[in-house]
Sequence to fold (306 residues):
Amino acid sequence: MDSSLISNFVAGLVNIVLVLLVAPLAQGILRKVTARIQSRQGPPVLQPYFDLLKLLGKEDIEAGEIPLMQRFVSWLSLASVLAVAALVPMGLGNSMNVAGDVVLLVYLLTLCSVCTLLAGLAAGSTYSLLGISREMMTMIALEPLLAVAVIVGAIHAHSLRLDAVLSGSAYFGAPWSGVLMLIIMLFAFQAFVQRVPFDVSEAETELMEGPLMEYSGPKLALFKYAQMIRMIVYAALFIGLFAPLGLNTGSPLAFVIFWIKIFGLVLLVAVIGATHARYRIDQAIRYFAAMLGTSLVALLLASYGY
Fold:
C-alpha cells in the first residue's frame, strides 16, 4: 500500500480524535464566555465533558414513534460530522482530503442536517414536528450557501479536489468573488453552527429543544456531541477556505496557529450569541435569502474570473 495513502488515513483518524477531544472544551469555553458577558458565573469550562458522560450513562428510554429510526439517525449524525472532520485539514499539514471532493463534503454536511430532520420526524411530538419544519426552512437556505462557497473556491482552484479548494489558493490575490464570499460566510457562520440568534429550530425558550425534545440518555448525547463537533468542523472549513496561511507545513507552530484561529471563531460565536436576541423564523429566512442572493452574485463573478 502506498505510504502517502497510509499517512493520509492516519491523519484523518488523528483529526477525528482531535475533534472528539476538543469539541466539548470549545463548548465549555463558549458557555463560560457567554455567561461572563451576561454578568453570570457560568458553568465550569469542563462541564460539557461531564454532561456527555452523564447522558451516556443514563437509561436509553424509547419515547418516539419510530425507535429504530431514532437509534439509527443518532449514530448517523455523529458519523457524518466525523467523516467531514477526517476530510478537513486540522493544522497537521495533511488529512484525508485527497480522498474526497467538494461534492462529497457538501453531501456529508447536508446529511448531518437531514439526520436532525429524521430525528424530529421519528419522535413525532408536536414540538419536534414544529422544530423540523424550522430546521427544513433553514437548511433549504443555508446548504446552498455553503455549496456556493466551495464551488466558488473550486472555480478559482480549477479543481473539485478538497486538497486544492481547502488550501486557500482560490482566494489568494483577493478576487472579488472570494472577498465577497468571505464577507458572506463570516456573516452566516453563526447560522451554520446553529447558535443565537439563529438557533430557531431548537429555541429552548419556545420549543424546548425542538427536534430533540423527545430524546434523552445516550441518543441525546450523540446528537449533542455531533453539534459540538459541527462547530469545530465549520470553523476548520472556514479557515481552510479563507485563512489557511501557514497551516500546510505540518509544523508544531502551524498546529498551534490553526487552533488559535479555531478558538478565535468560537469566541466570536460566543460574543454574538451573548449580545443578540434570537431572530424569529421569518427574520432568519429573510436574512438567509439575502445572503444566498449575494452569494449567487459572487458565483457569477467567479464564473467570469473575478
